[in-house]
Structure formats: structure tokens, C-alpha cells
Amino acid sequence: MVEYLWDDLVAPAPSDPLAECVYGSRLIGSDPAMVLHGGGNTSAKAPFSDITGQEVETLWVKGSGWDLASIEKEGFAPLPIQRLRQLLDLDSLSDIEMMRELSAARLDPAAPQPSVESLLHALIPHRAVLHSHADAIVTLTNLEDGADRVREVLGEGVLIVPYVMPGFDLAREVRDMWPSGGDCSTGMVLMNHGLFTYGDTTRQAYRRHLDLINRAARWLESHAPHRPAEGGPLGRVDPVELARIRTEISRAAGRPMISVRHATAEVARFVGRADLSSVATRGPLTPDHVIRTKRIPMVGRDVAGYADQYRLYYQRNLHRARGETTMLDPAPRVVVDPEIGMLAVGATAADSQIASDIYHHTIPVLTRAEDHLGGYAALPEGDLFEVEYWELEQAKLRRRGASPELAGMAALVTGAASGIGRACAEELMERGAAVTGLDLSPGVVDAFDSPAWLGVPCDVTDPAAQTRAVERAVERFGGIDIVVVCAGIFGGVSPIAELDASEWRKVMAVNVDAAADLLSGVHPFLRLSPAGGRVVVVSTRNVPAPGPGAAAYSSSKAALTQLGRVAALEWASDGIRVNIVNPDAVFDTGIWNEELLATRAAHYGIGVEAYKRRNLLGTPVTSSQVAEVVAELASDRFAATTGAQIPIDGGNERVV
């Protein structure tokens, strides 16, 4: 059931139709059971005053690229209604021609590109229109006898329109079906797609919208009640197998992909079905989803077989393309497997999240329809092909441009809650990578708010804990392509003659032993990386130029550097490159505190500020500067470099 959330104390008055439309748009857009990742549309009809002061009868329709949940007035494109209705009198209008005309018709050229559904919204003779892909409605439209069920459940006042792709053809179809001299007072359902309601105000359209959705929800709960899954989530899967599948998917896609495992009890129940292969391959809830999930998921683990079938699907339906097309990559976006559960795949972590959200909504609809309502029936293959290879979608892909340089790659950074480690994680994410950060601090969990971030509290000196953290990284993002070894401690300052053995062992455990355990554990995943594994070890200037009083720190980092050099020698044949950075005097890190700064400055007989700039360039060195070098070493620009040691210290006369 959908809760009525309109608040008269907060909602704008009907005297401001566009503000009221913004409010109603946000209400439906914030509920994923109605609008999920771009589905849905809204509009309002209200005058536009041009520069001469003349008022133009105007359709304010949601613009392309705006999310209903957060839309503002600026997200609506103003279009002259008379012009739009003139376009509907044409005998035909291609999608590209239609979008060109809509774009040219904007009364404000700075407004966003208008929705492809603008002509339909202009046609509907009401001042406010809301459109959603509500789960309850789409469930009814995807039944074997969907039109009959919609009529039975929603009543005769609803206009039922067979699926037509949004645009000129849909608007013409609705115009031809609209009752002559009458009104479809309740709403309109576009089969296999969604619900439209309308009214004199957005509030009225919203009330009608929720009424129809809740009618459908009550009917479904009565005839096909949802029952929580019995049993628990699926168990552990060999992470190397997950990485192998992700690598094969990436090769089919022609670029690295993020692959996220989902193994909840609901997923476990679905993938445990005896008829999984049949039910899972019936098609998406709405044609809009095919862009995000492909027409069908991959059932099982045969990536090459799935890719071959996709190529055949493309060849079978190529004649349906409305314009010039290039075959999209044949890699799956959703994988269902009885042991693994579900893998949601995307070019980025955000894309993977979208595929996941959509399929989590798809599973209960498939199950309900198949088990209780006579069977699930999506659009035919050819119709879905037309959507997937729609010339407007192809044009969007061409305009999208190049992806971020590390898009699709999965990185693991130790010591990621603060200092250089946090800066490295942030820089890698800014360049498109998905990042798992390990740190002793619980704050690592919330270090970043992004689908591309997984923070794992972990004592790296505990080999078992570190192994579990690596497995979580693989389950979350599919594999590991980049490793940044950054966790480290300085330890106490003392001459060797006064060395504390326990302090020595503590520094060695964090700076060397944990790194050796980590590299040993991540090697199988780096070897499987579809991009070629990349390791960057964060060492220190103390390796080539040690200072007195820091025996444990200097020795541990020297051992760490040697470990990285050996890894570069051993792993080159696996396509893994290992490089080392040697920062110095990076004072915005957890290693440094006021006491240590004062001690080191006093050792050299200078003040703290002078000590901070004690390098040839006289410049401060920051964590972000180190992170930029680390990210560069992980990029393709250093594809021919391994075993290098890069100083980031402002220049040091003992090293140069």
C-alpha cells in the first residue's frame, strides 16, 4: 500500500501550478514502489509570460536528466501547447525529428531538454498529469490476461492503452483512443509500462494516482499475498569464483565492470526455484528497464554462452531498429545462480546499484504473477529490442562521452579512515573506481557516502580479519584491481640502545607483517583483474634517508619496500605491476601529533613551522598530493612501469 503524504500545510497552493507540480513530483519520485531510477514523468499547464508580457498557454514538463525525487522548478521545460498539438496533426514524425522540434519549441532555451512524453502530456486535457511505473500497476499489466485484470481491478473509468513506445506514436494512439466528447476521469494505464492520472490540480492527480495504486495493491494482497521468505541468506561462495565470473563479464563488455553479490533470503528463495531458467527470462517489468538490466538476466555462469545468445538476439531483430545502431556490449547486467544468488553488474558501482534495485523489485512481481496469477508475460522480444536500440537512447550513449579513467575498477586501500589512506580512497573514487577501505577505526564505515564505497573496520595485524575483509571487498565489487598498502604506524621515538622490544614488534606487525599477509591474500584477485593488477605501496623517505630515533619505523618501511620490489619481480608475469611511493613530512596524517612534531623539530634545532617545510622546494607536502601520485601510478599512464620508487618529499638533499 502507498501512503497518502500530501500535507496541505507544506504543499504550495494551486494558484502556483508549477510549484504544486514540483511538490507532487517529489512525493511520487521519493517512493521506489512508484518511480525507480528515472521512470515516471509529471507536468503542469500554466501560462508563461514572454519578454513582451504576452501570456502563452504552456506545458511545463519534466526535463531530461532530472530526478523526480529532487526536482526543482528549473527541472521543467516550458513548451507552447498550441505548437505541440500542431505536431500531432502530422502524418508521421520520427523520434529524432520530434526531439528536435521539442527542443526548438522551448520558451526558455536554457531549460532542460523536454521529456519524450511531452506530446502525450500536451494532448491530455487536464492541467496536471502524473505518470509512474508503480509496482502494483505494472504487476497487473504483465499478466497473461493483463488488460482484463486491469479493467477488473481498476474499473471502467481507466483508459487501457496497448504498449506503444513513448513519443509521437503513443500520443497519436492515445488521441485516437480518447473517448469522443468524453473523459477518462479515473486515469490511464499504458500496458507493460505504467499509470497516468490527471486533474485540475496536481493534488487531485496525486490523490487519483494513489487511489488506483492502492486498489491494485489491495487486490494483489487478496489474490496473491506476499509471504516473507523462509530460511536465511545464501552462504559463502569462493571469492575467487566470483572474481572469475566478473572477469569474464568484463571481457564480454570490453571494459572492467563492477559486480555486486546479493544473497538475501528473498534472493535465495527466487534462485532456488525449479523453474528459475524459465521465470527469470520472461522479460523486464517495463521496457524502460531493459537499458539498465538487458532484456533478460544470465541464469548460471556461462558468460560466453550468454554473450552468443545476445548477439543472435541482435541479429534477429536488427531490422526493427529505427535508425543507425551499434550493438551494445553483450555482457549481462544481472546474473541469477542457485549458489551465488544474484550479481548486479554495471560499468560503475552506481550502475550496479541501479540494476540491483530494479531486479529486487522485479523478483516479487515475477513470483506473484507466476505462482498465483496465471503467469508473467512481458513484451515480446522484438518490442524490447526497439526500446534497447531506440535511436534516442543510442544518441544519449554517444553524447555521454568517455567514462572516468578508473571506471569499473575495484580498489582496496588500507589505513583508509584518515590521512594518506583516506586521501587515496577519495582520489580513486573521483577517478571512477569503487573502493573498499580497511582501517582499525570504526569511522572508516562512514568515511564516504557513496555506492562506490565500502568501509570495513579491520585490525590488519589479524590475518583472519584481513582475509574476511578482502572477501567482503570481492563480494561487494566483484574483484580487486588496485591495492594501496597504506596502513602504518610510526611508533615511539628512541635510540636503538633504549629500544622497546614490544614497540618494535608492534611497528613491524602493522607496517610489514600485515602488508605481507595482504599481498599474499590479494594475489589471486589481482591476477584475475580484467584491467591488469596494480599495487602501490606507501613507504617513506626514511628508506633512502633514515633519521635517528626511528629505528622501528625506518626498518619496517625498508622491509616493506623490499617486499614491494620482490612482488614486482614475481608478479610481472601475471600482468601485475607494483610500485612504491616515498612521501616525507606529510603532516596531515594520523602518524603525526604535536608532541612528535615538537620532538623532531627540536632534534634539528628549528621551529615546528620551519620543520614542516624542511625540503629543497620549501613546500608543504599534503596527503592529497601523495594520493594524486598514487592514483597516477594506478592509471594506464604507468602501464609500462613496475618496481619504481617515487619520492614525494619536496626534494631531499640526502636522496637527490
Explain how this protein is built.
- The longest helix is centred in the C-terminal third of the chain and has 28 residues, at 501-528.
- The chain is elongated and about 100 Å long.
- It has 23 helices and 18 strands.
- Helix content is 42%, strand content 14%.
- With 656 residues, it is an alpha/beta fold.
- The strands form 3 sheets. The chain has a 7-stranded mixed sheet with strand order 3-2-1-4-7-6-5, sandwiched between helices. Strands 14-13-12-15-16-17-18 form a 7-stranded parallel sheet, with helices on both faces.
Indicate the structural class.
alpha/beta
Our count of helices gives: 23
The largest sheet, given as strand count, sense and whether it forms a barrel, is: 7 strands, mixed
Low-confidence stretches: none
Share of helical residues: 40-55%
- Beta-strand residue fraction: 5-15%
Average per-residue pLDDT, rounded, comes to 94
The neighbouring-strand order within the major sheet is 3-2-1-4-7-6-5
Radius of gyration over C-alpha positions, nearest whole angstrom: 29 Å
Report the count of strand segments.
Answer: 18
Task: Indicate the overall shape.
Answer: elongated
Distance between the termini: 70 Å
